[in-house]
Amino acid sequence: MAKIIVDGVEVDVPPEYTLLQAAEAAGAEVPRFCFHERLSIAGNCRMCLVEVKGAPKPVASCAWGVRDCRPGPNGEPPEVSTKSATVKKAREGVMEFLLINHPLDCPICDQGGQCDLQDQAMAYGVDTSRYHENKRAVPDKDLGPLVKTSMNRCIHCTRCIRFTTEVAGVPDLGAIWRGEDMEITSYLEKALGSELQSNVADLCPVGALTHKPEAFHYRPWELSKTDSVDVTDAVGSAIRVDSRGREVMRILPRVNEAVNEEWITDKARHIVDGLRLQRLDRPFVRENGRLRPATWQEAFSVIANRVKGTNAKRIGAIAGDLAAVEDMYALKALMQSLGVKNIDGRQDGTALSPAYGRASYLFNSTIAGIEDADAILIVGSNPRIEGSLVNVRIRKRWRTAPMPIGVIGEKAGLTYDYDYLGAGPETLADILAGRGSFAEKLKNAQRPLIIVGQGALSHPDGLAVLSLAAQVAQNIGAITEGWNGFSILHTAASRVGALDLGFVPGEGGLSAQEMAKGGVDVLFNLGADEIDIAPGTFVIYQGTHGDRGAHRADVILPGATYTEKSGTYVNTEGRVQMGNRAAFPPGEAREDWAILRALSDVLGQRLPFDSLNALRAKLYAEVPHLAGVDSVVPADVAAAVKALAAVGGTPGREGFKSPVGDFYLTNPIARASGVMAECSALARGLKLEAAE
Amino acid sequence: MAVRKLAPEEIQPKSFKFSPENEAFADQQIAKYPPGRQASAVIPLLWRAQEQAGGWLPQKAIEAVAAKLDMPDIRVMEVATFYTMFNLEPVGKYFIQFCGTTPCQLRGAGDIKKVLERRVGEQNHVTADGNFSWLEVECLGACCNAPMVQINDDYYEDLTVENFEKLLDDLAAGRPVKKGPQNGRRASEPQDAIKTLTDPSLYDGSRIGAWRKRFEEEAVKPADTATEKKS
């Protein structure tokens, strides 16, 4: 630790800290544009100038290390001043230069009200300009459907370039020309190709890069802000949902060091328009082959008539990918009261099951733990599209010091170098047998990590593959004291919650696939849109969007999306997180647990809770770890891996295929979104181009 | 700085491939740097690509360099656009870089510029016969022979309107031309009578060792003055 005096306050900071970080540790605020904690240091905006005692000129505090400061003549700690007159004058000078070419279009700029330049100009700007020449004019760039440009406003902080190059790993952006002609652009103005590209608009300290789908839709001060959690993948990114009146206007990332740092995927962010399109806003009942609007009473009585005449063995329930824990708990309780054992929350047919212990289906290393791994084997997963922020962590780890990464499954651009080992279970068996150089690398690693994706587990032979992976984990010593190197990457936000609840077939119960193939006569479908249900089954669909599930339904009960209800989601690590209500469901749609509670009454099996709190109290009594919001309750990994390894079985020969075919269209909300459709079409085009 | 841009699509070649010797040169340059640092060789490769493509960098050449160095296209584009010596549009067979900085200006570069404007046309514009194009650049470091131009790789110095016109005529006609000063002067020697370094003793050898003699004399002197002060 090094001592340093900032504005008279002595602080003890690590010597590798920059002056800016030291100043923040001492409670001083330093303005900045180019500096960002999670990006490399550029040092080009000069806004963070401070005075260092003994230095002839102000220094850029973001690029000056504490250990670079010399002590005083008698060994006193170095002294830094962030508030002196010199500093203020220097910053005013920098600000004046930045404003020379910055247009005065704040009234029509989407960044207005959330603009670093605007805020800092209040502190350091002067009220008039001494510059009478014409301002610089720069042509706007077309960077695709998500990022809108207004390049006159650019102050060349290069945060966007550093983000795409370092974090996203898709180096699309660059600065061409030089000096005052410098322009930020992509190569020949191609659309950006990253699934994280929207974050550049968040990073932009001015209004040069803004969100295209949201352009001119709102002012930031009109919005009410609700902290929530993302459900578009199983990572469970922390988000903030901003709404105006009944309408969700935008979704922003929140900082959560353990999960998403401060990034979110484009899907999580720009799914917003999908929340208001194609919505189911009233119950529907199928009559003579056509769905007609109905009242809740009508819909319930149709269901009640059907259920009453059906044997419990011929009734089933499937929970979809976006269901909250509370909804599934209510559905499970309802099914139990009806004596139904056919329940399943795994519409993709994954082999994961609570039978082998909680650790058998969790990302045990935790996402932040990826940074400690020194070798990674990815089995049947494309983390870039299945859990983009997990991929970001792997890349972050790989960038600090490249470690061996092996992939079994599909060959894909993952933004880091990896050894492609093979396509299917045979390669995994080879690793187990110690064949090949990568097996050697895994063995030699101190903290090897095996990530098993749903591509490997969603086949009928999934359990055998999972067992094989567990054997490999045992074999290479992935589970040791203090290291859990056996991780499952999920693709659905609801899956871990369903498994935690035990939303799986009871004794003699049918799986989701068996139910869908006609194993039941009455099927309760809680938002499962990615499964084909055989004709002949009476389907009750409770969901939010007029998607595949609704088209197949005989009765539709309109529910609430994740922004319209308070719901618990458990992410792939087993982290319990709670989303909050930012808006109300449209029309007659209701919160899902409440629908199930009302239905239970009609079915004569009144569920024992009248409020969400009562439901949660029951839920927490039954599954205590769900009460620990924002925490991960560690599971016994060694036992789970042992149990899995003992299962054995012979896997097939088919190669692993990622379950996420189109990153942008994985759930009904995304499929309703026009922005996502545009992104998807563009991504398909880019893929075709790359294949040529 | 002059506005630069990529050449329009219709004149961009459809493909670019390094010649075998340039390929070998590229490998040699890449070998200079540690593995994984091959991007350091971007400037020599771009330069060779420019030479091979006839004095300018087509889009496909930029992409070829990027592919060779395993760099994203935009990174190579950044370098190619940053340095003004990479031409992004076609140049004439004789690409004239005309020095317009102060010393040349004082020595009559304005007249040379007029000749260029009259005979070649505006900057960055290739004559109809494809022979010439010109560009005003900053100081080329030959101020003692001002005014001057660089044509392709060579300097042509001590220009006047007459000898520059003749130079252009000769180049256009394919006649051999003399590089360097165009007024008969050798390198950057004085143009007329020598006015400095005229002392013959500089050249007869009598100066050899003279500095040591002077030091020896000076070493004796302080001792004298010291005794004088005492008395």
From TrEMBL, chain A:
NDH-1 shuttles electrons from NADH, via FMN and iron-sulfur (Fe-S) centers, to quinones in the respiratory chain. Couples the redox reaction to proton translocation (for every two electrons transferred, four hydrogen ions are translocated across the cytoplasmic membrane), and thus conserves the redox energy in a proton gradient. It catalyses: a quinone + NADH + 5 H(+)(in) = a quinol + NAD(+) + 4 H(+)(out). It comes from Microvirga terricola. PANTHER family: NADH-UBIQUINONE OXIDOREDUCTASE 75 KDA SUBUNIT, MITOCHONDRIAL, RESPIRATORY NITRATE REDUCTASE. Residues 1-86 form the 2Fe-2S ferredoxin-type domain. Binds 1 [2Fe-2S] cluster per subunit. Keywords: 2Fe-2S, 4Fe-4S, Iron, Iron-sulfur, Metal-binding, NAD, Oxidoreductase, Quinone, Translocase. Belongs to the complex I 75 kDa subunit family. Residues 223-279 form the 4Fe-4S Mo/W bis-MGD-type domain. One of its GO terms (molecular function) is oxidoreductase activity. Its EC number is 7.1.1.-. The keyword Lyase does not apply. It is an enzyme of class 7 (translocase). Its cofactor is [4Fe-4S] cluster; [2Fe-2S] cluster. Residues 86-125 form the 4Fe-4S His(Cys)3-ligated-type domain. It comes from the Bacteria. This is NADH-quinone oxidoreductase. SMART domains: NADH-G_4Fe-4S_3.
